[in-house]
Amino acid sequence: MENAKILVYDGSFNGFLTAVYRSFDENIQVADIQKKSVVQRGLFSDTETIFTQMGHAKSVWNGIQTKSHIIIRNIYFAFLSEQMGIEMILYKYIKKLFAPTDVLALNFSDDSITKINKLAKTVGKEKQVLETRLKFKSTADGVYFAFVNPENDVLPLLSRHYRFQYSKIPWLIFDHKRNYGLYYNLKTVEFVSLNTDVLNKNTDLNTMHVKDVLVRKLHRQPMQKTRSDYARERAAV
């Protein structure tokens, strides 16, 4: 019998879903699913690196979505909580979802489901707070700029709200804690990295040009623009 494996992924939601797909497709006994930045090898576990594949991620996403739009929303929101061990909690839940039983028969008093719902609710609340209380300052080149330092990784959830709120003004929301930003250039919303050697919370935004601190685009969760469904609008796939 093969040892259980620790599946190592890139930290993205797509990467996590790819790991779930591989575990199902190859019938892998999973000991843990860990971000590559925090890998801790198990004493009796092999480690396998999982490379993100959008097709595999989308397959799992679509499969969960057929079960329930509420479930897929809660899974995504709970993932963004970055709670320690959330990957295995979600993996076991997804595995249970795909078991040969009616989803309505699932035990929703189960501890893991309760935890997922609780985390999703917490993430949802923080998202709402940032949508109502976020304050922008204008840079020298006319970009609305805001620093945030959220407890949860909620930046991917803010795209739709601010794209409609400020559709005619370029804006950039920068997560100082995670060192990446959400940038709207009047056409698309992109995830970007900024030069933090130049930029900090005390930077005088009135004299700053965004192009001077913009480092590169990041391939995180691409923004969905053509669908109105709540979960898909914020989804990674």
Provide keyphrases for this structure.
237 residues; alpha/beta; 2 domains; six-stranded mixed β-sheet; three-stranded parallel β-sheet; 8 helices; 37% helix; elongated; disordered C terminus
Walkthrough of the structure:
By secondary structure, the chain is an alpha/beta fold. The chain has two domains: 5-126, no CATH class; 134-233, no CATH class. The protein contains eight helices and nine strands. The strands form two sheets. The chain has a six-stranded mixed sheet with strand order 4-5-6-7-8-9. The chain has a three-stranded parallel sheet with strand order 2-1-3. The protein is elongated and about 60 Å long.
Short overview:
By secondary structure, this protein is an alpha/beta fold. Helix content is 37%, strand content 18%.
Characterize the overall form. Answer: elongated
Proportion of beta-strand residues: 15-25%
Judged by helices, strands and strand pairing, the structural class is alpha/beta
Report the span from N to C terminus. Answer: 35 Å
Helix content: 25-40%
- Strands, total number: 9
Average pLDDT for all residues: 85
* Whole-number count of domains: 2
Major sheet characteristics: 6 strands, mixed
Low-confidence stretches: 222-237
Gyration radius (Cα, Å) is 19 Å
- String of helices and strands: EHEEHHHHEEHEEEHEH
Q: What is the tally of helical segments? A: 8
**Main sheet: strand order:** 4-5-6-7-8-9
